[in-house]
Amino acid sequence: MLILATPVRQLHLGQTDNGAMPKDTQLRQSYDTMTQGFGVGSNGPVLIAVSLSKPAQNDQTQLEKLQKQQQQQEQQTIQQETAKQQKKADQQIQQQAQQQQEQVDQEIQQQAQQQQEQADKSIDQQAGQLEDQVGPRGQAAIEQGADQQKAQENKKIAQQAQQQVEQQEKTSPQAAQVAQQEKFLKSKSSDPRLVNLRNKMQKTKGVDSVTLPLVNKKGDAAVYTVTPTTAPSSRTTEDLVRTLRDDVIPDATKGKQMSADVGGTTASYIDLAAEISSKLPLVIGIVLSLSFLILLIAFRSLLVPLKAVVMNTVSILAAFGVVTYAFDHDWSARLIGLEGAVPIVSFVPLMMFAVLFGLSMDYEVFLMTHVREHWKETGDPHEAVIHGLASTARVITSAAMIMVSVFLAFVVNGDPTIKQFGLGMAVAIGVDATVVRCLLVPAIMSLLGYAGWWMPGWLERVTPAFSIEGNEFFEEMEAASADPTDTRLTSETPAPETEELEEPAPEEYEEPPTKNPERPLPKRPRSPNSPASRLTEARTLPGSLPCEGSCPKSCWRSPFGLGAGVAWTIGSKNGKGLLHREVGA
Predict the structure, then answer these.
(1) Which of 42, 60, 339, 392 has the smallest number of CB atoms closer than 10 Å to its CB?
(2) How far from chain centre, in Å, is Cα 271?
(3) Rounded CA gap, 13 and 276, in Å?
(4) Do 68 and 146 share a domain, yes or no?
(5) Are strands 13-14 and 344-345 parallel, antiparallel or unpaired?
(6) Which residues, 6 or more positions from 496, have their beta carbon under 8 angstroms from its beta carbon?
(7) Which of 166-175, 342-351, 401-410 has the lowest mean pLDDT?
(8) If pLDDT is split at 50, 70 and 90, which confidence band does 509 have?
């Protein structure tokens, strides 16, 4: 039992996510799609709710600064583009001028060669004239036309550069980013307090991304969505939530007229697990303490309820230990049908304790009631244990077998939560019904012997009488009815006083009279409905005869009340009150 309970030291309550579900379910498929597209943390984002006592306002200083920088960048971009286009145009114009000059030279050479073929003289004269007319004048015209074309091209290039810059500002990613930033600075989300909080959360270890704050119209509330880098069921995510609550958020909101809280589904499951973990020992302690008091009153013993509490605790710890080990290791989790280790769902141990306590206490009361009955009959504690175990063991183990079979069927289910509950309850009931109730409890009671039924005198006096099955109540009522001096069961209104009746000795009733109508009633007040009063009244009726057989001679039979032939067997035996059952005459 101690070996089974050892892993309970590593018990950590948490919450499973859809990543532990079977792959053929839509929950798992949706989980995998979110993981591939946005990261595993997107399956369990954390919400940060902010309350601002001073309404949020846009950051006007940053907005003006951004606009100034944007204007400067636009001017620089225009100048750079203009200079670049002008340089490119100058190069093109120079190339065109060189090409024109080369063409003119080639024409002059061709004309000169043609003139030389006709005549050397005419060629020389014509060549000289052509050179005088075309050469200098053509060169000046070419240069003048080139200057005019250059000025026109420069003007045209400047206009095109301006248009290109404006168009690029509207379509480029950088321009879009600047426009988005400008839009953000104009909104209330650009409040420096909210921006500072977002920056600090973004730098926290374990945070994948933080959205821009969504602020309401009044500006007194905002919300962030924080995406962790780990799965919702991971302990790293739990550490992140605690870090945000304990360190990051208090530091970012201190003295800034604002407060922030961590919420969302993931955080709520973490809080639930922490709350149950802290209160579970207290719940178990209170329930076991109350059960100790009830068993103390029921069995009139100090060690029997103490032993029951200890055995219940052992059964609970063994069940918790098996569940912890089975779901905390990969190889054991695969045997159960999971892909790997998963956390213990927070409410499973609490539900296991509630069901197990009811069943184990049922087995305990059933077993110890039979042991106590035989102990009262024989006074031998060892024989009482043997008799109680022999009469209850088969019933207990048969009922436990049924319950174990039912709970083992839960393990076939694909949901990890149902698997944990089914395996835990099957182990708990199996261990409690066999090892605890049929082995440890009888062994402890045998070792205790007479001490097992010991109870201090002062505690015996202050403890109220209580019977589990009611046998003590009926025995006490019968004894009180048979005792003529006991008026506890008589009516509060006494009957009229009558003369006291002398009871003759038993030997004087050898031949009782058949008629005694004038025999006076007893002087002692009795309820008219009490058996003793009815017996006395029966004696006064005609035909009253003493009972025969094993009944005392002081008993009488009479037709009174129940018809002829019915014997009233009320009397005294060995000086003690005795009430026999009504039998036929």
Answers:
(1) 60
(2) 8
(3) 8
(4) yes
(5) parallel
(6) none
(7) 166-175
(8) very low
Two tokens at 158? 């400047």
Length of the chain: 585
Same domain, 428 and 531: no
List residues bridging with 222 in a β-sheet: 50, 215
Closest CA to 4 of 448, 401, 434: 434
Element (H, E) at 179: helix 173-186
Q: Which of 312, 530, 551, 536 is nearest to 437 (CA)?
A: 312
**Is 39 buried (19+), middle (13-18) or exposed (0-12) by CB count in 10 A?**
middle
pTM check: above 0.90 = no
Tokens for 517? 């109508």
Residue 205 burial (C-beta neighbours within 10 Å; 0-12, 13-18, 19+): exposed
- Residue whose entry in the numeric block shows the structure tokens 């120079």: 94
Pairing of strands 214-215, 258-263: unpaired
Assess whether 312 and 373 both reside in one domain: yes
Do residues 348 and 335 touch, judged by C-beta distance below 8 A? no
Based on the fold, state whether residues 348 and 431 are members of the same structural domain: yes
**257 band by pLDDT with thresholds 50, 70 and 90:** confident
* 474-479: Cβ within 8 A, 24+ apart: 478/579, 479/576, 479/577, 479/578, 479/579
In this structure, is residue 153 part of a structural domain?
yes
The residue ranges of DSSP E strands in 166-212, in sequence order, are: 207-210
Distance from the Cα of residue 460 to its chain's centroid: 44
3 state SS of 430: helix
Question: Do 227 and 44 meet the contact criterion of CB atoms below 8 Å apart?
Answer: no
Q: Is the alpha carbon torsion for 410, 411, 415, 418 positive or negative? A: positive
Mean pLDDT value across residues 516-527: 43
Total structural domains within the chain: 3
Kindly state whether residues 457 and 496 are assigned to the same domain: no
Beta bridge partners of 227: 209
pLDDT digit string (tens) for 315-355?
A: 999 999 999 999 988 898 888 888 888 999 989 999 999 99
Torsion sign (Cα): 455, 460, 466, 469: positive
333 and 449 in a single domain? The answer is: yes
Q: Nearest Cα to 400, choosing from 356, 444, 352, 348?
A: 356
Residue 69's SS3 state is: helix
Contact indicator for 543, 529 with CB cutoff of 8 Å: no
Residue 229 neighbours by CB under 8 Å, 6+ apart: 39, 40, 41, 206, 207, 208, 236
Among residues 9, 18, 63, the alpha carbon closest in space to that of 320 is found at 9
Contacting residues for 465 by C-beta, under 8 A, at least 6 apart: 472
